[in-house]
Amino acid sequence: xxxxxxxxxxxxxxxxxxxxxxxxxxxxxxxxxxxxxxxxxxxxxxxxxxxxxxxxxxxxxxxxxxxxxxxxxxxxxxxxxxxxxxxxxxxxxxxxxxxxxxxxxxxxxxxxxxxxxxxxxxxxxxxxxxxxxxxxxxxxxxxxxxxxxxxxxxxxxxxxxxxxxxxxxxxxxxxxxxxxxxxxxxxxxxxxxxxxxxxxxxxxxxxxxxxxxxxxxxxxxxxxxxxxxxxxxxxxxxxxxxxxxxxxxxxxxxxxxxxxxxxxxxxxxxxxxxxxxxxxxxxxxxxxxxxxxxxxxxxxxxxxxxxxxxxxxxxxxxxxxxxxxxxxxxxxxxxxxxxxxxxxxxxxxxxxxxxxxxxxxxxxxxxxxxxxxxxxxxxxxxxxxxxxxxxxxxxxxxxxxxxxxxxxxxxxxxxxxxxxxxxxxxxxxxxxxxxxxxxxxxxxxxxxxxxxxxxxxxxxxxxxxxxxxxxxxxxxxxxxxxxxxxxxxxxxxxxxxxxxxxxxxxxxxxxxxxxxxxxxxxxxxxxxxxxxxxxxxxxxxxxxxxxxxxxxxxxxxxxxxxxxxxxxxxxxxxxxxxxxxx
Length: 582
Known about the structure:
Helix 3 packs across helix 5, helix 7 (307-319) crosses helix 8 (332-345) and helix 8 (332-345) packs across helix 15. The protein is built from 17 helices and 23 strands. Helix content is 29%, strand content 21%. The longest helix is centred in the last third of the chain and has 20 residues, at 494-513. It is globular, with a radius of gyration of 25 Å. It folds into 4 domains: 12-72 and 213-298, no CATH class; 74-211, 2-Layer Sandwich (Pseudouridine synthase), CATH 3.30.2350.10; 306-479, Rossmann fold (3-Layer(aba) Sandwich), CATH 3.40.50.620; 483-581, 2-Layer Sandwich (GMP Synthetase, Chain A, domain 3), CATH 3.30.300. Strands 1, 2, 3, 4, 7, 10, 11, 12, 13 and 14 form a 10-stranded mixed sheet that branches.
């Protein structure tokens, strides 16, 4: 009898993964091999580390199908930035040239994009996986070699323009959907459009939404693996893991925020084979919301992962520790963590800690205290001193890392004095996928962990849980720290933070008096005593008709209204290379 081949007992499967930014396709394959304890795993079409979206994996004998699937047409959502060229033709590369795109009209942009539709001879991006004399072109670029890539025949079926925006006077951002043949480089389209317009261009965002018959509606986010992959009930190794679901030791810095640090003498549970939802047939979108996912049962059957499932995992995570100190900002995310901890452990084993500093609006302090008291938990309000950290004051793209470092460095000894080993945050699964979260990395490096992210709970899940539990902050608007209102590169100071806080409070009161209701409102400090006001898109028209209301924003020489309305993280749009700060 011939010896049994490795992986012979593995059912052939196709896995649809929603790849996050910052990972290579090889990273995803390596994770699948570790999670499934299977060596034979491959993918049907590379995605750049910057890119997100659908990556089709084949497991076992299904890898034989990948050659056919890789030749399928693909669809991408992308953002093209005109006015700047990079060595990689995307945001990850060094900027090689900057030319103002101020004179480029919207019609010019549409015409240049239309010229990229049809059968093309396209030169791939130099930093790509294309081989030149047996060596990858990106390796040749890194080695400083000069070479030319040959043009390749590709077909772009269509380019749909959704939005043309001007984040600065000299840049133009274009949101597009591209449907194309295999082998097409969307980065090269951005480069060639910029070259045709004489201003240069590169990609700032890329997401694959479909490949052949598959789309992201049926894909699973990598981060949900900690909640949904593997046996529902792992063998107990110690009290820390007695009731916890399997833990995957991912390499990603942001994904590491989902797990607490390893403890001496505490061995994580084993990882049984299986656990990624799989199918040997074309997957079907799960009922419910777009973000609905599917979970593998033992034996390979599939069922929907509901809010109840995620809440059960959240409860298991929190029940497994003796007590927690919750970094409670006063927002809905950390509020749900706090409420869940009380439900799992009892109020006597939970402490809420709200850091008091110039970056926290005074109105938030009182509301946070009232909520903590309503749950019956002890509420600590330690003072943090972010302004003593030069990196925070300098206000670079990694400012949040210095803020979170200060926070966890203050909360960890506070928790120790109270006899608590676990500091937890309100980071959710959507935060991990957002791509621009330097603070998550810093918190994780200092040992804080995120129960919501571990349970795979999205922002919508968090809101739904808050409503189910009838928490008063269920519909509370997002309230980022005051420093997020100050443009990167403009130094942060106590006076600057106070000026923004006063301006927002005064404008909100003026709008209320005028009968203009707003949920989200931001006064953005652009530097040079210039401010930009963002309100809900529905309120933009009403406020633009009453420009005198902007006089309520005092302390700035120039105040303008952003016609695009409120956008969370709007300051990030102005960064030349946001991927650096993931």
